[in-house]
Amino acid sequence: MGDSVGAVYSGKGELNELGQPIGMALPDWSPASFPPHTRMEGYFCRLDPLDEEAHTRDLFDAFALDREGRNWTYLPHGPFPEYPAFEKFMAAICRQDDMQFYAIVDRRSDKAVGVASYLRVKPKAGSIEVGHLVFSPLLQRRPAATEAMYLMMRRAFTELGYRRYEWKCDVLNAASRQAAMRLGFRFEGTFRQANVYKGRDRDTAWFSLLDREWQELDPAYKEWLDGVRRSPDGQQNESLSLAIKRHRGDTDLSEL
After folding, report:
1. Domain annotation covers residue 11
2. What CATH number should be reported for the domain holding residue 62?
């Protein structure tokens, strides 16, 4: 039987003195910095450290526009049809030590319209995950949503020196999988029976971006967001996925 893991491994490495393949040496690597829980400023939005007093009412009102509760299907909590339950939820996540939550604030209305978080932060390994994304109907499919994800990537890679940026979701969450691919993440595989939540099984799809890939994505995001800013109707003629493909030098420029 062949070594199926070795057959699909595409990384570059070296040989040790025993002739065994080992990972590339990283003589210049130093651990990344832990993310400061501070504001991130954009043109369409800003990300503020989540604050129960400042953001609870705005977020409850924004999430209430999702009348069927679709935003919460693939999350371990929610939906929250009643305000007191949402208040309790906000109080809990604002006190999380292992996750760093942000409110995504629309610059036009100055109201919080979504939530995002850093989690599984591993500075020594240079790995960090983005997750617990809840985008209200006021944020979905809008430039501010893309910009929010860009701001979090930029802080991780450019400002703090991370080398791996992760995105994970329930494999059945098609919208999250598609969003990850649109944003330029690479699919890595599925962890079967990885979790149990809301009384049901979860297979988890893993996606990632690496620091060397960020060098191609950063200018693609800047170009795309600048095009939206300059457009009189706030629209882009080219999709973000195509802009990313161009900057990566992909020959297949079909839509995702």
Report:
1. no
2. 3.40.630.30
